[in-house]
Amino acid sequence: MSELVNVHLIDGTYELFRSYFGAPEAKAPDGREVGAVRGLLASLGGLLREPSTTHMAVAFDTVIESFRNDMFDGYKTGEGMDPVLWEQFPLAERAVKALGVVVWPMIEFEADDGLAAGAKKFSEHERVERVIICTPDKDLAQMVGGRVVQLDRKQRKLYDEDGVYEKFGVAPESIPDYLALVGDDQDGIPGVPKWGQKSAATMLFHYGHLESIPENCEDWQVKLRGAKSLAQGLAEHRDAAMLYRQLATLRLDVPIEEELEDLRWRGPNAELGEFCREIGFARFMDRFD
């Protein structure tokens, strides 16, 4: 049997945001701001130098809006994004392709959906030991389990099923229900009034999913402070909570055409040198001598 491999699935949108706010500003020879793209290249280049990194794909929100915006008016949009950052998105996709890494540009779906679908597909491959989803996003925690783990590269923390429970107080399969109750500011999900992290985790640890929580708090098999108020809030917003859960549930039907060997990194493409000169980052090529 062939040697088992790890598959790294990268949230390119998050990585670009992280570079934008963490890497120094830099100008290309033509005057464009390219600091975030340089930071992205440096970050991925460092990951590719690790011996365990052999197979990789990067998903981007090529279009910030997705099918979820049709479901809920309050869902996140690109409104308010710094144009300097937004203008670097196309460059970022070009950079990753030039680096020789597979890119999944999401238009109808979100990058998180692409990562989830990829995790499902490749975790079922007999030659895959682990799928490592590289993002701190809370919603990707729902994919953790079996061969799938989540890595917060910034904090250098790896989460398996026990890690998800330790962080959120619920099992991975309850994460969409948890986010429906407590909300997710990053995605524009408001949550259910009066419900917080402790109350949501306590109830979902016992009941698992929203529909299993009795409407009458007198029927609850766990005791919570303010139970009557919590039950009333959930009863009044149950339909909204079910919608929020649907928004937080990642799609696994994103078409992922690549097979495992397509994700194997074989070194940068010939275009990388020219691209690096275009953004004034020629010294990056020294890493691949």
Strand portion, in percent?
5-15%
How do the SSEs run, as a string of H and E?
A: EHHEHHHEHEEEHHHHHH
Parts with pLDDT < 50 across at least 5 consecutive residues: none
Supply Rg. 21 Å
Number of domains: 2
CATH superfamily of the largest domain: 5'-nuclease
What average pLDDT do the residues reach?
Answer: 95
How does the helix and strand content classify structurally? alpha/beta
The first-level CATH class of the largest domain is given as: Alpha Beta
Q: Given the C-alpha coordinates, what overall shape results? A: globular
Q: What is the CA–CA distance across the termini?
A: 32 Å
Description:
The structure is a single chain. The chain is an alpha/beta fold and 289 residues long. It has helices at 12-22, 35-48, 68-71, 83-86, 89-98, 111-123, 161-168, 175-182, 197-207, 227-236, 238-248, 271-278; strands spanning 5-11, 55-61, 102-106, 128-134, 148-152, 157-159. The protein folds into two domains: 5-167 and 251-288, 3-Layer(aba) Sandwich (Rossmann fold), CATH 3.40.50.1010; 169-248, 5' to 3' exonuclease, C-terminal subdomain (DNA polymerase, domain 1). Helix content is 39%, strand content 12%. A six-stranded mixed beta sheet has the order 3-2-1-4-5-6, sandwiched between helices. Helix 2 runs parallel beside helix 5, helix 5 runs antiparallel to helix 12 and helix 8 crosses helix 11 (238-248).
Helix-strand blueprint:
Blueprint: E1 5-11, H1 12-22, H2 35-48, E2 55-61, H3 68-71, H4 83-86, H5 89-98, E3 102-106, H6 111-123, E4 128-134, E5 148-152, E6 157-159, H7 161-168, H8 175-182, H9 197-207, H10 227-236, H11 238-248, H12 271-278
Helix pairs in contact: 1-2, 2-5, 5-12, 8-9, 8-11
